[in-house]
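Figure S7 source data.
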Amino acid sequence: MFDGKKIREDFPIFNSNKDLIYFDNAATTQKPKQVLDALQEFYSQCNANVHRGIYKIAVEATDEYEEAREKVSQFINSKIEELIWTRGATEAINQILYAWALWNLKKDDEIVTTIMEHHSNLVPWQLLQKNGVKIRYVNLNGDGTLNMKELENSVSKKTKFVTVTQMSNVLGTINPVEEIVKIAHDNGALCLIDAAQSVPHMEVDVKKINCDFLVFSAHKMLGPTGVGGLYAKQEILEKLDPALRGSEQIKSVSLFETEWTDLPWKFEPGTPNFADIVAFGYAVDYLKKLGMKNVREHERDLTKYALEKLQQISKLKIFGPLNGTRGGVISFQLADIHAHDMASFLDDNNIAVRSGHHCAMPLMKYLGISGTTRASFYIYNMKEEIDKFIETLEKAKQVFKV
Amino acid sequence: MTSMYAEEILDHYRNPRNFGELKDAQIKYKESNPLCGDEYEFYLKVNNGLVSDAKFFGDGCAISKASASMLSEHVKNKTLDDLKKMKLDDVLKLLGIEVSAARTKCALVALLAIQKGIQKFEGGKNDGSQR
Ligand SMILES: Cc1ncc(COP(=O)(O)O)c(C=O)c1O
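Tokens for the predicted pyridoxal-5'-phosphate complex:
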């Protein structure tokens, strides 16, 4: 059903870098030729600004652009009106801050989030503190899962907003987001899901999750950089003014007033990154064709295999759940080898991993470490690569004399 | 590419020379590299314009610690002016390895501690404000 080796043939990067073992997929993924071709084709065949020209190629460009929105909104099961293009997950979160949170959260209101958040879902909310909003952080259980009891106790009638990652980019933990959304709603709070690490790797259905906001980035799911999605419920979007203002989002403008156009364009001022967005549509086609159930299954297989092997290496500590609901992100520390030395050593052996704090400094502090080495998998990874990775870790132990 | 993790580097990493505090050092400066979380404090004793003793304390990756250790040996009997003139290349020569571009900051952190320490020391002495 799923052959990592076969899939690799679609990815030119592995042709240019024959021995590359790419295990940094949580940072960004490689692009299949279907996406690269789409980009090339768009620029070669119908490049024109969207929603403006009335000539043929402009109409074609606009159609392609809106078709991408259709594909991606279907992919997360949202309405077309509910999917707003951004530059990425980080910008999407900031739009929620500036369009909704800053206007609606007041002194003594509380927001609840977790200690495992990426800086992108943590730094923006700190701004609310200037208005006297209190931030509460939910801690973890010993195995790296979220402490749901603590979350339940932290959310109260004072809570106006709950914001949680669906999957940790450090621990691989997958959080029970449906349950979290329910707890938020039972207390009258809105809920944001940071799906930057989940939409690329599993079926995500915004209606099933029932979240109010959800964000993700194209570059982490075979798509180009500079594209992201902001999902928000239609009834919320209708009530909000856009965070960013300018052209292309208006029905009419007079000297002192503007009437916004319809959803979703109301939230998309200026010329969008349309060529990359079109190509993103093809990335989603590619994933749909593989089937997200199969993608998840493939990664689950690889992760299980890697975790079993890693646990056989003495003095190797894994941060995050060892079984149960987790994704293909594995953070570890091997004896006292510094994470960056580990990453450099792996790089010497053509294995690309991430090292450091992974944009989660509060989580590092909570875990009492300065950083980890992180391997993260995707559709083109294979068990053979994990074998080489494990061998290299054993070699590192000898070289570093641990 | 030759490995960054040559025998000698790892020896300095595992057994850093001149490791510890130098109580009566005139020059004392802490520098860190946020990339790796490396942090080192360098202590230099100066006598007649020459470094008479040097120690360092801190922790970080193998590249940063090995370069701190090697520099702590290298700086002795050098003039402050000699040390101010040192560049990345000089550190790499001491290390004797190729350091990947992503890791040059690690190789530099100890030298920066030394040079910023000297700058502060001379600034204080002249009572001038250089920066
Ligand atoms: C969990 C999580 N949230 C948010 C982001 C930010 O994504 P981007 O940098 O594409 O905006 C990342 C990226 O690393 C992430 O892993």
